[in-house]
Amino acid sequence: MYLQRISLENVGPIDKVEINLSFHANGCPKPCLLVGENGSGKSLVVAHIVNALLSAKQVAYDDTEVEKGKVYKYRSPTYIKSGSSFSYSETIFDGDLWVKEWQLLSKRSDFEENLKYCSIRPEWMQIPETEFSYFDSNFHLQEEKTKKLLNQGCLLYFPVNRFEEPAWLNYDNLTLRADYTDLKRTERFSNRQLISLFSLKRNQNWLLDLLLDRNIYDLHIGKLNPELLKTDFKEIGINFFGGWHGASTNIYQSILDILKVVLRTEGNIRFGANSRKDRRIVVMKDEQQWIPNIFQLSTGETQLLNLFLSILRDYDLSEAEFNSLEDISVKSCHILLSCFQKSSLLLPLTRHYLYWV
């Protein structure tokens, strides 16, 4: 689900802005970086995008972060630019899907009578005469298309208040165990969250699922031809290890590539898990336990690893196919990220990220 354009007028400190997202010739979007001084309205731009995406999810699924019929972004005349009498926003996605919002300083009937103003935009007449605001979208008119676009890739928002407790801050973090994920398989349940907060535990559980699937479904055992092993007495059949090949292995290998960058290391590293009585995800190096619990990474390492794991996990839960990191950088949807340190490490994946500083 690609964002194509967002327009804001008289919103907060913003007079008027229209951002048209750029796309490559093959239809894949280019990255967008919002840069501005404090108080210039960057977070308000992103808030409108997140609000629109959550509105789309409310139409397609029941497990939304915001109650159906409610909105994520607070609507109030206090967000109308000082000296103006109204604010307007329009968010356009691919597939001709849109969200539009009006906010007035007074009821529409009083507004027109006192200010002698009537917008040429067709939505103006849909604002009830006794109302101050109006919010509308066409997601409900194209529910199947909305659901399909939501499922085509990764949609995540990492808010500025995202937080993971470091291991040294809370002893409980050192004793947390990984559990297999219990996904709900019902028609209107996505098992995905657009707003990514406190996600390290969920990502640890997902890693455990990934390790299990890799060893159950991707492990290949071959059998040598008995004709090659004849003896004077009987034929002997011998099995041999054929490696891991499959969807889970593709994701797992990509995580290891990311882990090497985050931990600034090379060599043979992999994930492991303690016994079922103390199920922790560990990091092995040269087949020796190197990091006994991924909760014990530094704060910076935790943020970096958790960011990428959240993206991979959400993409894995979508209906898109994953073979390598290129699938995400070429096909995935927008990632909304604020105030991220060491952003140079995002380069392998940031073709489709909207992030602001």
From TrEMBL:
Q: SUPFAM superfamilies annotated for this entry?
A: P-loop containing nucleoside triphosphate hydrolases
Q: Which InterPro entries match?
A: P-loop_NTPase
Q: What is this protein called?
A: Rad50/SbcC-type AAA domain-containing protein
Q: Which organism is it from?
A: Romeriopsis navalis LEGE 11480
